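re: the backbone from monday

yeah here it is again, tokenized this time
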């Protein structure tokens, strides 16, 4: 079985991350799915943006949750100097979901930190919207995944793990279906722990040059990469 490739923030090695252009480019480069980040505005709207502070891509030193949707959508996006002439803007999650449903592309929807203080926005999303087939929610924040399972129990949830994670307690998390981990955790002990717990794994920061992508462990359910074209050439 072929392992799905998720383009990390879209084809972010080639096009500005988390933009419609990056998502469209990812499909052209052979991605099977899209990984994106969701933050919440001051007035409760969900947007696709990675950082909690918008300065890196807008030049404006403000937190996402301090800005209204109207303000967030008005800021040109880009790296320093290039953003002056940029026509790229922060997309709303609902627009990306509509596009993904039309294109029949699964989404890896990562729930970010601004949602930890606005559960209502997440609950509204879960109770009012459909997502593309085979999509899932991921997060570093277990409380957000618990909410997902409460309102949409049949949607897959994935926990992003850090070095503090206790792999011996995988059975203690019935609300987590899959583990998402940096590729440095592609080791026998972690793979075996997930196998024993009946949980699959997806690995991020994959470049396509790793030897393991040609012969992946059975628990591997996806590669998350900035380079979907390179991974597509080298995976099974």
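seq for it, each position gets an aa:
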């Amino acid at each position: 079985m072929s392992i799905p490739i998720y383009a990390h923030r879209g084809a972010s090695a080639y096009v500005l991350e988390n933009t419609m252009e990056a998502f469209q480019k990812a499909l052209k480069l052979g991605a099977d799915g899209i990984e994106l980040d969701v933050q919440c505005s001051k007035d409760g709207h969900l947007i696709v943006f990675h950082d909690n502070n918008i300065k890196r891509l807008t030049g404006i030193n403000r937190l996402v949750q301090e800005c209204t949707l109207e303000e967030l959508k008005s800021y040109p996006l880009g790296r320093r100097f290039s953003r002056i002439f940029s026509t790229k803007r922060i997309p709303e999650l609902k627009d990306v979901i509509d596009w993904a449903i039309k294109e029949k592309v699964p989404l890896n929807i990562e729930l970010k930190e601004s949602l930890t203080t606005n559960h209502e926005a997440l609950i509204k999303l879960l109770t009012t919207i459909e997502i593309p087939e085979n999509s899932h929610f991921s997060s570093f924040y277990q409380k957000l995944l618990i909410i997902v399972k409460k309102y949409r129990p049949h949607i897959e949830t994935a926990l992003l793990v850090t070095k503090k994670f206790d792999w011996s307690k995988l059975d203690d998390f019935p609300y987590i279906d899959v583990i998402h981990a940096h590729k440095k955790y592609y080791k026998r002990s972690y793979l075996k722990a997930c196998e024993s717990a009946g949980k699959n794994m997806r690995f991020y920061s994959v470049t396509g040059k790793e030897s393991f992508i040609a012969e992946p462990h059975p628990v591997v359910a996806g590669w998350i990469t900035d380079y979907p074209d390179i991974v597509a050439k080298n995976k099974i």
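The chain has a mean pLDDT of 96. The radius of gyration is 17 Å.
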